[in-house]
Design a protein that fits this description.
There is one protein chain. The protein has helices at residues 7-16, 119-127, 139-142, 152-168, 210-214, 217-227, 231-251, 270-287, 299-305, 335-340, 343-360, 378-391, 425-430; strands at residues 34-35, 73-75, 78-80, 86-87, 90-94, 132-137, 171-176, 257-261, 292-295, 310-311, 320-322, 325-326, 365-369, 395-398, 412-415, 420-423, 435-439, 442-449, 454-460, 469-472, 483-487, 490-491, 502-505, 514-521. By secondary structure, the protein is α/β, with parallel strands linked by helices. It folds into two domains: 7-431, TIM Barrel (Alpha-Beta Barrel); 434-522, Immunoglobulin-like (Sandwich), CATH 2.60.40.1180. A nine-stranded parallel beta sheet has the order 11-9-8-7-6-5-14-13-12. A five-stranded antiparallel beta sheet has the order 18-19-24-21-22. A four-stranded antiparallel beta sheet has the order 4-17-20-23, with no helix packed on it. Strand 8 (257-261), helix 8 (270-287) and strand 9 form a beta-alpha-beta unit.
Length: 522
């Protein structure tokens, strides 16, 4: 979870974990080596995406076949659909009652109030241009008791949300989420039995001290054990891995689920984080050969310095997606920095994420980003970040859909008296832009000019990536009263689907030919 990610808590976590950014892990133990993030220049042996723009404006050929995954797969560092089109993720995070596990035993008050989710939420997400829901679920919900097995009722609730997403036209990423390690001592994540050493104090709601919880001795000790090299760490990681595999077995073959995110915002040495990532990814692939696996870097380092350790080898499990979080200045900015930032100030977070994904040999999806929409500089921040995501061809998922208790980053206001939610038009408009969703060919570039109400998408045709482009166009309230679509200067007959905002544009040619699609509001 993004909220309350305080710089001081992260620095405390780094120190408590003994985190030295120069640390690398010895080869030969099944882990992937990572190099220290001392600068952003890739090493000379960097692995780069082979299907990328070249210096002369062309596109280097992709010789890799699409992976055998569904409904989305991977190919040459990109996510692709069943027609071979490049998928551009524009997603949304949601904490959902019954799945985001905050209830406590012993008469303790729940950690926090969590919004419900219904068919109207899924439909509204889709109409606002989101194509992927990141659904936070918890180890404590799946396996609450040390020897009680997996909770089928909890997994049924997860499946019910997946069903609602399916009815609304959304895909789902199942996210094994944690914040401050566990609801028992922090906010969410591990069950009580998986906190080692045992906590000295069990906490309860309301959650009005998350910053203190994140840097508490018992939270940092639990992270140290879980990611550490001792027998208890080995045992807990094995149990977590088995739990994740059980979830994957439950959702194997579900064509709404695109994959699983291994561990939200881990706090440990990068080598320790990737040890867990490889272990869990291997088990997920065995349990569910058909879905993608999303993995994160150590979050403390990235949040503080806006980049992570650089890998020196590809991620060793197929169908993997690199999933860092990018929040430049959002939690660490001083008043002076927040008043003066430019797009270049924010650039390193996305630029480094792109470089790291290329070194891993995976697609890039930023599974959390955001900023307080009430800020005076919010329009600039949202515009710059989305421009950078387009420039670096990064999928991205906004934090958060609805929230009642942690700030006001959600896209809705909540009326406590009536229990009603109402959309904030100003917040919604910050995310409303014309954007490609499925690109039939190799994307060279795309860029949206909000002032001119204009999207320009440049593509190189490929024989193995056919079908229409799918482009999201916001409704007239958030875009323009009318619009036109052209392909290479010729008018295209492209009607907007009112329920999804999607227009389809057929704009193809001979293999290797260059094309330009323009959506122009008027």
């Amino acid at each position: 979870m993004a909220a309350m990610h305080l710089r001081r808590a992260l620095l405390a976590a780094l120190l408590a974990a003994g985190c030295d950014e120069s640390n690398t892990r010895p080869a030969g133990d099944g882990a992937v080596d990572v190099a220290a993030p001392n600068d952003l220049a890739p090493p000379v042996d960097a692995v780069t995406v082979t299907d990328a723009p070249t210096t002369d404006g062309g596109v280097a050929p992709c010789t890799e076949a699409a992976g055998p995954f569904a409904p989305w797969s991977t190919r040459c560092g990109q996510i692709v659909d069943d027609a071979g089109r490049v998928v551009v993720v524009h997603g949304i995070n949601a904490r959902i009652a019954g799945v985001f596990d905050v209830t406590l035993s012993g008469g303790r008050a729940p950690v926090e109030a969590i919004p419900t989710f219904g068919a109207s939420d899924a439909a509204q997400m889709r109409s606002m241009g989101f194509n992927l829901l990141r659904l936070s679920m918890h180890w404590s919900g799946v396996e609450p008791d040390v020897d009680g097995g997996y909770d089928g009722a909890y997994l049924d609730r997860v499946a019910a949300v997946v069903g609602l997403a399916r009815s609304g036209g959304l895909k789902v990423l199942l996210d094994f989420h944690q914040d401050a390690y566990s609801k028992e001592i922090g906010e969410d994540g591990a069950p009580l039995w998986a906190i080692v050493p045992a906590p000295t104090q069990l906490l309860s709601g309301p959650l009005n001290d998350l910053g203190d919880r994140r840097q508490s001795a018992q939270v940092l000790a639990a992270f140290h054990t879980f990611f550490g090299d001792g027998a208890e760490g080995d045992r807990l990681r094995a149990r977590f891995t088995q739990m994740a595999a059980a979830v994957a077995t439950r959702f194997r073959g579900d064509d709404t689920v695109v994959g699983y995110e291994i561990y939200n915002e881990p706090i440990a040495l990068e080598s320790q984080v990737q040890r867990l990532s490889v272990q869990v990814a291997t088990a997920l692939r065995a349990a569910d050969p058909g879905h993608l696996v999303f993995f994160e870097p150590d979050s403390s380092g990235r949040a503080v310095v806006n980049h992570s350790a650089r890998p020196t080898a590809r991620f060793p499990v197929t169908g993997a997606v690199y999933a860092p979080h990018t929040y430049p200045l959002a939690f660490t900015g001083t008043p002076a920095q927040l008043a003066s930032f430019t797009v270049e100030t924010l650039r390193p977070a996305t630029e480094s994420a792109r470089a790291e994904a290329d070194l891993w040999g995976t697609p890039l999806v930023v599974t959390e980003w955001g900023f307080d929409p009430r800020s005076d500089r919010a329009p600039d921040y949202y515009r710059f970040m989305q421009d950078l995501q387009a420039e670096y061809q990064a999928g991205a998922m906004y934090w958060v859909w609805k929230e009642q208790v942690q700030g006001a980053w959600g896209l809705f206001d909540f009326d406590a008296a009536s229990g009603a939610w109402s959309v904030r038009p100003a917040a919604r408009r910050l995310l409303a832009r014309v954007r490609p969703e499925s690109i039939a060919g190799v994307p060279v570039s795309w860029a949206y000019d909000g002032a001119a109400h204009r999207l320009v998408l440049r593509v190189t045709a490929r024989d193995d990536r056919r079908g229409p482009h799918r482009i999201y166009v916001p409704d007239s309230a958030d875009f323009a009263p009318s619009f036109t679509v052209t392909c290479d200067g010729m008018a295209a007959n492209a009607a907007r689907d009112p329920s999804t905002g999607i227009v389809t544009v057929t704009c193809g040619g001979a293999d290797g030919s260059a094309h330009e699609v323009v959506v122009q509001g008027s």
